[in-house]
Amino acid sequence: MVDESPYACWDWELEKKNLEFLEGIDSEYFSYTAATNIANIENDEKHKAATALRLAYSHGLETLFALLCSAIQAPQCSIGWMLSYKNYQLYRLVHKISKREEIYTRFRERPVSWRKLSDHVHANLGYDKEKVEWIQKGFGHLWNSFAGEFMEANFTNEYNGLKHGLRSKPGGFHLAVGREDTFGVPPPREKMVSLGGSTFGSTYFVQEYPTLNDKINFRPRRHSRNWNPHNLVNGLILISMSIQNISSWL
Predict the structure, then answer these.
(1) Same domain, 161 and 203
(2) Same domain, 72 and 149
(3) Residue 5 lies in a domain
(4) Using CB atoms within 10 A of its CB, is residue 116 exposed (0-12), middle (13-18) or buried (19+)?
(5) Could you tell me if 240 and 120 lie in one domain?
(6) Cα(18)–Cα(33) distance, rounded to whole angstroms?
(7) CB–CB of 69/93 below 8 Å?
(8) Within this chain, do residues 117 and 29 fall inside the same structural domain, yes or no?
(9) Tens of pLDDT, residues 4-15
(10) In the predicted model, is pLDDT for residue 183 greater than 80?
(11) Hey, which residues does 219 pair with through a beta bridge?
């Protein structure tokens, strides 16, 4: 099952090909991308480096959740699940797991949660009981946090803007407020109070529809997001570790 859609994957050497598929997953790609681009975050190419980090981070989350969901629904046939899923099915399944809703799964424990999956993945690590529980709890919390970000509409819109023709303009924004002395006349900069901002981020356009039932008429709406490249690097390292753990378990 991929979410609620049935598939049948057939091959004379299916087990062998499944292992070949899993062994071909290079979890270090994401940590390598992090190390390579953070080295350029202070020079003239900083926005290109930051964009590469953001794109890798989004790509890494999609890869991670595809593996996690394949483990929940088809632990003996990740290759079949990964070749079959569509993005809308992945988003819907991540949402259901995060909300503890019923799903089709090979797991006996119901409902499935990221923590329960982490308990299985990190069950035989060879450490003492306390350390194993600490690792299980930590990765369960991490995956749940990643899922919240992965399900955000703006996360998807920005990711699509970056990967499809680089439709996102690099660079962050700053926000400040101030009281007008004269109605309609912005106060001078020195009277503005900064609410924070970032050098790094992106601006992209999304479709905004006037009504829910009208899918023909729309206008392009500008969205902007800020982010910290160093947070993305930390996230990419944790994504690499997670992908290594889940693929090894599978």
Answers:
(1) no
(2) yes
(3) no
(4) middle
(5) yes
(6) 26
(7) yes
(8) yes
(9) 999 999 999 999
(10) yes
(11) 208
Whether residue 203 lies inside any domain: the answer is yes
DSSP secondary structure string, the chain? -BTTB------TTHHHHHHHHHHT--THHHHHHHHHHHTTTTSTTHHHHHHHHHHHHHHHHHHHHHHHHHHHH-TT-HHHHHHH--HHHHHHHHHHHHTT-----S-SSSS--HHHHHHHHTS--SS-HHHHHHHHHHHHHHHHHHHHHHT-HHHHHHHHHHHTT--SEE---EEEE---SBTTBPPPGGG-EEEEE-S-EEEEEEEE-SSTT--S--EEEEEEEE--HHHHHHHHHHHHHHHHHHHHH-
In a domain, 102, yes or no: yes
Same domain, 99 and 221: no
Answer whether residue 7 is part of any domain.
no
Which of the residue ranges 26-40, 77-91, 152-166, 182-196 would you say has the lowest mean pLDDT? Answer: 152-166
Number of domains in the chain: 2
For 199, the domain range is 169-225
